[in-house]
Amino acid sequence: MSKLNNLFRNLKKNKKSAFVGFVTTGDPNYASSKAIMKEMTKYCQIIEAGVAFSTSTSDSPIIMEANDRAIKSGMNLDKTFKLVKEVIVETKTDTCFILMTYLNPIVVYGIKKFINMSKSVGIAGLIIVDSNLNSPEEKLLLKGLTKKGIGYTKIISPTNSEKFIQQSIRNTKNSFIYITTYAGLTGSKNVNLKNVKKLISKVKKYSKEVPTGVGFGVKTTKHVKQVSKYADAVICGSSIVNKIKVGHEKKFSAKKLAKFIGKYVKTLSAGAR
Fold this sequence. Notes:
9 strands; TIM Barrel; 9-stranded parallel sheet; alpha/beta
């Protein structure tokens, strides 16, 4: 049983949805990123911490710019682990932290080393955007993460086949299935509620147990409220990252930037039922 399992079980009892806030770790720098995430633990049941990566394939220009800022500030995978651990220890938070990354950085780091470090830090779950469902790496990750009680999330979109959706559900362990409301880049469109309903229905057709998390295009409190009627978790990313960019360009201090983001995330999270 993972920390994510417990979270969703408790939320279901109380008929509530989780609010998931995404940030790129180290954006715009280590100190500011740490302050932002500490502030976000007050309003997010889950924080999706993106590992800065220069060649991501599904991220919008907004998040790619965040990756660039983080890499420029010296961010890497070891510093990401250090940052998340410090936030968890210093806040003593119940917020679940999940890492979002691509397969290449994990393979370079070492799959076993990555899994062990995730467990040591207190990572609750992992999203790997480009890991093939039946690859040797996928099998190693599934086995290792499950053994350590760390959730593993797969992503499905409106263009995926029934077979792909079924396999993705099977590969999702101790976590939630991530549903994108449209095919394309994060934050490039507004949420598509028609697709939300359709894909949640498909997921429930194959599994009534796996929770559903919905992201892509969720930008306002109204969007959060609409999606939370159907999903177990609502994911907001690009709009939060864009706010970080705004505050950074205004040269806000770490403390002021964190308060600026916290105020926005508080407003967004209020929409979750």
